[in-house]
Amino acid sequence: MTSSDRTVVVAVVDTARCTGCGWCVPACPWQLLSLRTGAAPQWKKTSVLSDPGACPGCRRCVPRCLFGALSMQPRPADDPGPPVSP
Ligand code: SF4
Ligand code: SF4
User: Fold this and answer.
1) Rounded distance, CA 56 to CA 83, Å?
2) DSSP label at 53?
3) 27 CA: nearest ligand 1 atom
4) What is the pLDDT of residues 69-85, one digit of tens each?
5) Rounded to the nearest whole angstrom, what is the distance from the C-alpha of residue 61 to the centroid of ligand 1?
6) How many helices (H) and strands (E) does the chain have?
7) Phi and psi dihedrals of 48, rounded to 5?
8) Does the pLDDT at position 43 exceed 90?
9) 52 in contact with ligand 2, CB cutoff 6 A
10) CA 58 – CA 55 distance, rounded (Å)
11) Ligand nearest to the CA of 70
12) Ligand 1 close to Cβ of residue 65 (< 6 A)
């Protein structure tokens, strides 16, 4: 397998912009996104990518976010990521 067989981008949540609406959660076919409640006193809910190394970079979650909190970013060099989706 060559480097071109690996995904080069990964979904990233901007927690400052995230409202916790949850719209992105069902958009991920791999169930990698979920809502998490932050600490007191705000108890702010945000979306969390549970396993960035498993995200194939399909981008399906990005257009579901109406708040500009989801984007695709270059994958860190030390994270090869999963193989490209068929
Ligand atoms: S890019 Fe695709 S696999 Fe990754 S979190 Fe978004 S919907 Fe899930
Ligand atoms: S759709 Fe956007 S604002 Fe809503 S939970 Fe997901 S990342 Fe946060």
Assistant:
1) 7
2) G
3) 7
4) 999 999 888 887 887 75
5) 6
6) 0, 4
7) -130, 135
8) yes
9) no
10) 8
11) 2
12) no
How many Å lie between the centroid of ligand 2 and the Cα of residue 1?
34
Domains of the chain from N-terminus onward = 3-74 (3.30.70.20)
List Cβ neighbours of 40 (8 Å cut-off, separation of 6 or more): none
Distances (CA, A) of 18 to 35, 43, 84: 10, 13, 27
Place of tokens 């500009």: 68
Token pair listed for 40:
């007191």
Whole-number Å distance between alpha carbons of 22 and 72:
18
pLDDT digits (tens, 9 = 90+) for 44-71: 999 999 999 999 999 999 999 999 999 9
pTM for the model stands at 0.88
- Pull the structure tokens for residue 13: 């949540």
CA 41 – ligand 1 centroid, Å: 30
- Bridge-based pairing of strands 9-13 and 33-37 is unpaired
